[in-house]
């Protein structure tokens, strides 16, 4: 029987890296050792607004130019303001796509970061922009 | 002042947030084992699909109209409900989560609540993609009635504040007594016997008569209809769709043991409520949070949930899971101000498909009898006289859920795909 976590990301166990004090080869211990910190909590650093933050997984190569590769996890905050140049999740043809948002000549475009792909015009931004990508996670193993 | 909000077409709307193809299509969500319709999109309502209809009887008819039928995905609904409630929590000092998709907020006098109502609605929509309707009034019963108006009349922009005097009376005279919160069911027949045909007549009935025929509960509802607050914001609430037991602690709790004990007590209370109403739950959710109005203290609010393979109301199951959930919610050094247990995906005890049950019928029956004995001891000797300490074994049988959407927000393997 497994309790599934339903934290914002559904990550079951927060990975904790102990931030220990200085290694002391000799002499006096560091005075900072009295101020040992806790562990790094990546949820805290990656997620500003837990209620509005979601994770999505990418498929495809159109965003290689900004280092988003197929299979990466995107952290998406719906509360984040959408600006010209934001990397966004948009709804196109009933599915999600990740692209860079650009305002040009009174029009709004979803722009790929890969010359092999073409921009898509956004006709109803309120319905189409789902959230703003605030970071991406890639597994190197 | 009280604001009441609920999520419009909750389950169907949640499905559409993660599957935009569903937008604008008739969509229904089915009860456990894909039995009956438990939720409908506006388009499905327009087709005349009723709540509770057995899907297998109407499936052929509606397939032509492209009706999308989904299994209930309580892991997803529970997580999205948490996000909505966490967002709403920042809008008022006191909140009563009434069910998975609705809550009451308590505002101090002087707040510009119409503005707050609009901001609440806009913020929830932005955070979750879900639309809520908001009703604002001096009492809970009128706030519920206000919400009906804001839902029925789209020109209100999803927020309606109860008007004083004649305008309020006009709304009441168009409401049937059974449309009034708390009247449907037991009190409905008594009201009808008195010849009361609308909510206005109900609100003006003599106090003495109300107390005598409708009991104290009914009299309170009558008073609330007049704008006189009689129903406190409850931290223990029960509704058809879900049962919640949650409390603010008198003092902040810092030890794991205290948190676990509190949560176990709430789970016990929820499970005995389920059994009293002869209901079973499909999913349990446990939440804990710090005091959001003490920003200088470390803030924490989170919840964990678990979907039972077989719907249950057994204390063994509920307390066992709740205890483990509480442990996973515990962080050293965090000052907890509030915790709670919510169960949903409620069904009737008898409808729990015995033939599919993981437990051999005699064993289940023995457990039921044991629980009945425990319940009666607790009734006679005081709550908590007999408590449970064990967890049922893993049920091997899996529920039928052929049309289950992915657990988009709670499983890394189920994340929505963004095409790049």
Which labels suit this protein?
heterodimer, A: 141 residues, mainly beta, 7-stranded antiparallel beta sheet, two-stranded antiparallel sheet, disordered N terminus, B: 420 residues, alpha+beta, 5-stranded mixed beta sheet, globular
Taken from the alpha-carbon principal axes, the silhouette of chain A is: elongated
Structural class of chain B: alpha+beta
- Quaternary class: heterodimer
Q: What's the total helix number of chain B?
A: 13
Q: How many helix segments of chain A? A: 2
Widest sheet: strand ordering of chain A: 4-5-10-6-7-8-9
What's the SSE pattern of chain A? EEEHEEEEEEHE
Number of strands of chain B: 15
What integer is the average pLDDT of chain B? Answer: 85
Strand content of chain A: 35-45%
Question: Cα-atom Rg of chain B, whole angstroms?
Answer: 22 Å
- What integer value in Å does the Rg of chain A equal? 20 Å
Shape of chain B: globular
**Largest sheet of chain B, described in full?**
6 strands, antiparallel
Give the low-confidence spans of chain B. Answer: 235-239, 352-357, 388-399
Q: List SSEs of chain B in N-to-C order.
A: EHEEHHEHEEHEHEHHHHEEHEEHEEHE
What can you tell me about this protein's structure?
The complex is a heterodimer of chains A (141) and B (420). With 141 residues, chain A is mostly beta strands. Chain A has 2 helices and 10 strands. Chain A has helices at 42-46, 125-128, and strands spanning 4-5, 16-18, 39-41, 53-59, 73-77, 87-92, 95-104, 107-111, 120-122, 129-137. In chain A, the strands form 2 sheets. Chain A has a 7-stranded antiparallel beta sheet. In chain A, strand 7 (95-104) and strand 8 form a beta hairpin. Chain B is α+β, with helices and mostly antiparallel strands. Chain B starts with a strand and ends with a strand. Chains A and B meet through strand 1, strand 4 and strand 7 of A and helix 4, helix 5, strand 12, helix 12 and strand 15 of B.
């Amino acid at each position: 029987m497994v309790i599934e976590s339903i934290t914002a990301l559904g990550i079951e166990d927060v990975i904790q890296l102990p931030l220990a004090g200085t290694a002391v080869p000799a002499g006096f211990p560091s005075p900072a050792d009295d101020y040992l910190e806790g562990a790094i909590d990546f949820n805290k650093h990656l997620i500003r607004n837990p209620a509005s933050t979601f994770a999505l997984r990418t498929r495809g190569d159109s965003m290689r130019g900004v280092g988003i590769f197929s299979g990466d996890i995107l952290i998406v905050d719906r509360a984040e303001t959408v600006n010209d140049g934001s990397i966004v999740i948009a709804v196109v043809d009933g599915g999600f796509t990740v692209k860079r948002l650009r305002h040009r000549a009174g029009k709004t475009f979803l722009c790929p970061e890969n010359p092999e792909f073409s921009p898509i015009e956004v006709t109803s931004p309120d319905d189409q922009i789902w959230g703003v990508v605030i970071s991406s996670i890639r597994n190197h193993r | 002042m009280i604001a009441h909000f609920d999520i419009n077409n909750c389950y169907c709307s949640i499905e559409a947030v993660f599957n935009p193809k569903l937008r604008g299509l008739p969509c229904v969500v089915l009860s456990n084992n894909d039995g009956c319709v438990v939720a409908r999109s506006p388009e499905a309502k327009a087709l005349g699909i009723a709540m509770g209809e057995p899907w297998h009887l109407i499936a052929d008819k509606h397939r032509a109209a492209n009706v999308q039928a989904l299994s209930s995905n309580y892991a997803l609904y529970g997580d999205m409900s948490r996000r909505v409630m966490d967002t709403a929590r920042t809008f008022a000092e006191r909140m009563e989560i009434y069910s998975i998709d609705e809550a009451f907020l308590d505002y101090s006098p002087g707040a510009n609540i119409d503005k707050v109502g609009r901001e609440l609605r806009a913020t929830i929509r932005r955070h979750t993609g879900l639309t809520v309707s908001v009703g604002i009034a001096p009492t809970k019963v009128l706030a519920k009635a206000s919400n009906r108006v804001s839902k029925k009349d789209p020109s209100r922009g999803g927020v309606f504040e109860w008007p004083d005097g004649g305008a309020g009376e006009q709304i009441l005279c168009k409401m049937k007594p059974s449309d009034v919160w708390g009247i449907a069911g037991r009190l409905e027949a008594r009201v009808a016997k008195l010849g009361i045909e609308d909510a206005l007549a109900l609100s003006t009935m003599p106090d003495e008569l109300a107390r005598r025929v409708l009991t104290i509960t009914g009299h309170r509802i009558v008073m609330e209809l007049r704008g006189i607050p009689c129903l406190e914001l409850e931290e223990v609430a029960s509704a058809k769709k879900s049962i919640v037991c949650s409390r603010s602690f008198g003092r902040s709790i810092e030890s794991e043991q205290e948190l676990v004990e509190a949560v176990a007590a709430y789970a016990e209370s929820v499970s005995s409520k389920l059994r009293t109403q002869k209901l079973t739950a499909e999913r349990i959710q446990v939440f804990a949070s710090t005091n959001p109005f003490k920003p200088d203290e470390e803030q924490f609010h989170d919840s964990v949930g678990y979907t039972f393979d077989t719907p249950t109301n057994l204390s063994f199951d509920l307390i066992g899971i709740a205890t483990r959930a509480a442990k996973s919610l515990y962080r050293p050094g965090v000052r907890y101000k509030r915790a709670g247990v919510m169960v949903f995906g409620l069904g009737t005890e008898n409808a729990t498909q015995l033939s599919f049950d993981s437990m051999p019928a005699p064993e289940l029956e023995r457990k039921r009898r044991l629980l009945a004995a425990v319940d009666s001891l607790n009734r006679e000797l005081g709550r908590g006289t007999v408590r449970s300490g064990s967890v049922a074994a893993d049920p091997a049988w899996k529920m039928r859920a052929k049309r289950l959407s992915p657990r988009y927000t709670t499983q890394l393997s189920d994340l929505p795909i963004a095409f790049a």
